[in-house]
Amino acid sequence: MGRTTLIEHDVPVEMRDGTVLRADVWRPADGPPAPAVLFRTPYGKSTLGLATLTPAQCVDRGYAAVVQDTRGRFSSEGAWAPLDWSQEGPDGYDTVEWTAEQPWCDGNVAMAGTSYQAIVQWLAAMEKPPHLRAIAPTMSTSAPFDAEQLGGSLRLDHLTSWLGLTALEWVQRRAAAGDPVDGAVVAEVVQLLTTPEVPLRRWPLSTILDFDGFPGRLRDIFAGRVATVADYRLGEVGVPTFSVGGWYDVFSYGTIELHRAMRAQDPVAGRHELVMGPWVHSGQLPQVQGEVNTGLYGSAQGARLADLHLDFFDRHLRPAGESADREPGGHVRYFLFGDDTWHRATTWPPPEAVDSLWYLAGGDGDGRLLPEAPQLPASRDTFTYDPEDPVPSHGGRVLQLGRLVAGPHDQSHLEARPDVLCYTSEPLTAPLDVVGRQRLRLRFGSDAPATAVVAKLTDVHPDGRSLLVAEASLRLEAEGDGPADEPFDADLLLGDTAWRFAPGHRLRVHVTSSNFPHLDRHPNVPGPVGEADRCCPAQQSVWYGGPYASVLRLQTLPAPDAGEAR
């Protein structure tokens, strides 16, 4: 509609302890007091440019927008400590209430933002600020859901590259204050951002960024003194939520589980919504993801993501009469790869999704993926996993701050390695819509007392490309004095997706024991993550037939369904 916008820079907002945080305020230049949307970011308020929702889009719809640097970051006062979540809840509460008291605000406040900006929304909502009406966290997770997704592994490149990125501003602030940081710290931070595989190959990992005074030492994380992901008291979050995620987001599982948990505990229907797009973890959500162009509707703009946010805010921040023309809320919207359309469901997974079992089996040197249990004697396929020669990461749910690429990428060059086992179906004769949560149960053997298994689900095209659809990891450790040759029961969470396998395409499961540097390398020796100072090779095996069943459990729709035409 177009409005004249008034922007005030570096507006001081005093916290309860006297610390002053600064914000930019965007608001309509005239008119009555309006509802406000609060963004809190550690990445610099002046550079906030999210594809999900921008301050300018808020103003165009008649909202004010407050964009604040979090404590100790950029223009805000206070001390910055990466991964110290204790202050974000109180600071969020104080900023919500400050916003509600301003003469340009009508007393109704919502929060929005991506990743860290999403996590601080949950932490603020737990504090129950009286004027907070709704939150819209994009790509967020919580500690228990993140641990379940990772199966005990560590997102190594993600963690170290993020610490390196945030440390750059910390280094600059120290230098400006006349307390320059040791050159060795600066050199290691730069190396983590430019050639991360060099420091990430160290044993033990706890020696990375192991400098006195550095505000994010891995040693503290491994010892449990610092939590990489926040945890929430969801029972104390009493506001409606609009959760947005991507199938290739590192936090895809957490985003979905947070939505499901909020919906399950809320007696009022229709207050919690979920959007799952084709996206990787990013503030920018274009239509090209990995090696796939998802078409016009695959971008944030094509999905009308900003409008969906503002429609949600209208429902919960404006009087009923002002939002009467808006459609009712409570939907799940998801993007179906391969059909490249948006679909709706009443819940996630969609209630019409059914289980489809596929069984792993060997045969003539090539593993098979069968729709019925094979009548075979017990057998196994083997490979050697050497932590000094790990399978390199390529695509998937990774963070792209370091040197990795995210999204649906071809895995065929990895599948040619001798330490990757592949199990492939016959070409499909009809479309297969895999929509929901996917799991893999392996009978997995190892001659090491502790090890790891990594699995991927791929879409094998007629031209031989093997595009990554979903992935999982699990750390394994023998218990008790059971038979040394008895395989582990390895239940791997491949996570959620919505992917159409076209006729002529094949399903494939590939199994290995590493995905480096996205995940830490298991050394094949017992002990806590990150503390091993040595490693050794291990002989690994996948069992099938007889009493051993290795099974891929997909959730599929009964028949292809037409998506939204827009």
How are the secondary structure elements laid out?
Elements: E1 5-14, E2 20-28, E3 34-41, H1 55-60, E4 64-69, H2 88-101, E5 105-114, H3 116-126, E6 132-138, H4 143-150, H5 156-176, H6 183-194, H7 197-200, H8 218-222, E7 241-248, H9 252-265, E8 272-280, E9 288-289, E10 292-293, H10 305-317, E11 332-336, E12 341-345, E13 354-361, E14 367-370, E15 379-385, H11 412-415, E16 421-424, E17 432-446, E18 450-460, E19 466-477, E20 488-501, E21 506-512, E22 538-544, E23 551-556
Parallel strand pairs: 3-4, 3-5, 5-6, 6-7, 7-8, 8-11, 14-16
Antiparallel strand pairs: 1-2, 2-4, 9-10, 11-12, 13-14, 13-23, 15-22, 16-21, 17-20, 17-22, 17-23, 18-19, 18-21
Helix pairs in contact: 2-3, 5-6
Keywords: Hydrolase
GO molecular function, one term: dipeptidyl-peptidase activity
InterPro entries: AB_hydrolase_fold, CocE/Ser_esterase, Galactose-bd-like_sf, Xaa-Pro-like_dom, Xaa-Pro_dipept_C, Xaa-Pro_dipeptidyl-ppase/CocE
Q: Which structural class is indicated by helix and strand composition?
A: alpha/beta
- Specify Rg, calculated over alpha carbons: 24 Å
Give the fraction of residues assigned to helices: 10-25%
Could you tell me how far the N terminus lies from the C terminus, measured between alpha carbons in angstroms? Answer: 21 Å
Runs in which pLDDT lies below 50 for 5 or more consecutive residues are none
What does the overall shape look like?
Answer: globular
Strand content: 25-35%
Say how many strands there are.
23
Largest sheet: 11 strands, mixed
User: Based on the structure, what is the oligomeric state of the protein chains?
Assistant: single chain
Q: Overall mean pLDDT score?
A: 93
- Give the helix tally: 11
Pfam families: Peptidase_S15 (PF02129), PepX_C (PF08530)
Domain Xaa-Pro dipeptidyl-peptidase C-terminal: 310-553
GO molecular function: dipeptidyl-peptidase activity
Protein name: CocE/NonD family hydrolase
